[in-house]
Design goal:
Shape: flat
CATH architecture of one domain: 2-Layer Sandwich
CATH superfamily of one domain: NusA, N-terminal domain
Helix content: 40-55%
CATH topology of one domain: N Utilization Substance Protein A, Chain:P, domain 4
Order of helices and strands: HHEEEHEHEEEEEHHEEHHEHEEHHEHHHH
Structural class: alpha/beta
CATH class of one domain: Alpha Beta
Low-confidence stretches: 455-469, 477-489
Number of helices: 15
Length: 519
């Protein structure tokens, strides 16, 4: 079955009007024919493939079946053995073209095919528009101001689509009128049921960069590079540029002869002021350039705080700050540093104050150091005294411990001596003869009074005894033992004490015997 020539020409014209490739149109027609075949007699359960010859307009329709081991649906599946009988080069899972279909489309099928063709063409057109504008994100798009939609913003009509300019992306000082041609910055492109949704902006800082690339060939070719941009849309902007090629003036290239290049950009932005400054690797010079047209005397940068103090002459203070602080604000955005602008008089006063504070701090530090040293010395003296006192206490404790040891040792020694004496006396009593024991018993029978009487009598007798009667005994000197005066041990003491007692006992017994004889 062949299509009529006028119908094929109409489809070709439709594809040309929609700016679609011929392949997309053919795919849409084939999909429409498939729906027409299913609509008439074959039903939805059958897989149908349609091939359209673009040269002759001939249509070939076939049913498709999948090769499987076990057939579950005869409309869409065929057994592997049966498929091998038809064609030898088939495999499991492969689709086979079965019988050819020939059918004269009815009015309803033709209407369905037409709707499918139009739907497929619209989808293809939306996809192509999306792909086209998706490539132009972060670029300038030229369009015409359309109507304003409540809640969405301003519609900008492009060649094949419509873009939305939201209220927050519009410049407050600009007035837009229908049919006005604008250059906008494409921020993002999104898919939607109504087609690609393109969001554009007029206040984005990159719009200024793209305008410079359009108007300044050196910027577009990369000879002059834009390093940073600070913009307050509709009011004023600052652009920092640097030349990457020797002998090129970056500021002069951007301004152009008699300012025609920069003037075109200003006109496109409806009178927005633009300052072009030179970017410098030296931060202080870059800050000075950023604050132009004001003159800068000195820049003191603090890298830790990421801020800088800028000193300007007294008459240049208002110019450096700008109207409502705009110049200083833009310079801070351009450099990325926090700027504090001061006049010379204020700076000198602050320096004097800082100097006084530094002196006061130095004096306070010196005083604190002196007090710390004094306190350390006092602590050292106190520690020495405390150590001496602890040493004296330790010595006293050692002496007391030694005295206690001696005090404890003396009673122990006495007990030991008494025990030794008792043992020796017991041993002597065992060695004495019976006569000595009897005599000892007799002596023990005497009372203390008898002893005292005997001693008194002895004294009287001794006094009465004349000198002549004493005889030669008076001249006898008791013989000392060789070891006399060398008592060293407890045994010596006991022997000495025992000898004395024995002598006294013998003298007492002799006196008592003489008294007994006299009686």
């Amino acid at each position: 079955m062949a299509l009529k020539s006028d119908f094929l020409i109409a489809l070709t014209q439709l594809a040309a009007e929609r700016h679609l490739p011929k392949e997309e149109v053919l795919k849409a027609i084939e999909a429409a024919l498939v729906s027409a075949f299913k609509k008439d007699s074959y039903g939805d359960g059958v897989n149908i493939a349609v091939k359209l010859n673009p040269n002759t307009g001939e249509i070939r329709a076939h049913t498709l079946k999948t090769v499987v081991e076990v057939v579950e649906d005869n409309k869409t599946e065929i057994r592997l053995s049966d498929a091998l009988n038809i064609r030898k080069d088939v495999a499991l899972g492969q689709e086979m073209e079965m019988e050819s279909l020939s059918h004269q489309a009815s009015r309803i099928a033709a209407q369905t095919a037409k709707q499918v063709v139009l739907q497929r063409l619209r989808e293809a057109e939306r996809e192509m528009v999306y792909e086209e504008f998706a490539k132009r994100v972060d670029d300038i798009i030229s369009g015409v101001v359309g109507q304003s939609e409540i809640g969405r913003g301003l519609v900008v009509e492009l060649d094949r689509a419509e873009a939305i300019l939201p209220p927050e992306e519009q410049i407050p000082t600009e007035r837009y009128r229908r049919g006005q041609r604008l250059k906008v910055y494409a921020m993002e492109v999104n898919r939607s049921p109504r087609g690609p949704e393109i969001i554009v902006s007029r206040r984005h800082s990159q719009l200024l960069r793209r305008l410079f690339e359009l108007e300044v060939p050196e910027v577009y070719n990369g000879i002059v590079e834009i390093r940073s941009i600070a913009r307050e849309a509709g009011s004023r902007s600052k652009v920092a540029v640097i030349a990457l090629q020797d002998g090129v003036d970056p500021i002069g290239s951007c301004i152009g002869m008699r300012g025609n290049r920069i003037q075109n950009i200003v006109n496109e932005l409806q009178g927005e002021k633009i300052d072009v400054v030179r970017w410098d690797r030296d931060l202080k010079r870059f800050i000075s350039n950023a604050l132009s047209p004001a003159e800068v005397v000195q820049v003191v940068a603090d890298e830790d705080d990421h801020g800088a103090v800028v000193v300007v002459p007294e008459r240049q203070l208002s110019l450096a700050i700008g109207k409502e602080g705009q110049n200083a604000r833009l310079a801070a955005k351009l450099t990325g540093w926090r700027l504090d602008i001061k006049s010379m008089a204020e700076w000198e006063a602050e320096r004097a104050q800082i100097k006084l504070e530094a002196q006061a701090a130095a004096e306070a530090q010196a005083k604190a150091k002196e007090e710390a040293e004094k306190l350390a010395a006092e602590q050292a003296v106190a520690e020495a005294e405390e150590n001496a006192l602890e040493e004296e206490i330790r010595k006293l404790e050692e002496e007391e411990a030694a005295e206690q040891t001696e005090t404890v040792a003396v009673p122990v020694l006495e007990e030991v001596l008494e025990e030794i004496l008792a043992q020796e006396e017991a041993a002597q009593e065992e060695e004495q003869p019976e006569e000595a024991v009897a005599l000892q018993d007799e002596l023990d029978a005497f009372t203390l009074e008898d002893v005292m009487v005997d001693e008194a009598v002895d004294e009287e007798e001794e006094e009465e005894l004349p000198f002549e009667e004493m005889g030669d005994e008076i001249w006898e000197v008791p013989q000392l033992t060789p070891d006399a005066g060398k008592i060293r041990f407890a045994e010596d003491i006991l022997d000495f004490d025992r000898g004395g007692r024995e002598g006294r006992s013998r003298r007492g017994r002799g006196k008592r015997r003489a008294k007994a004889r006299r009686r």
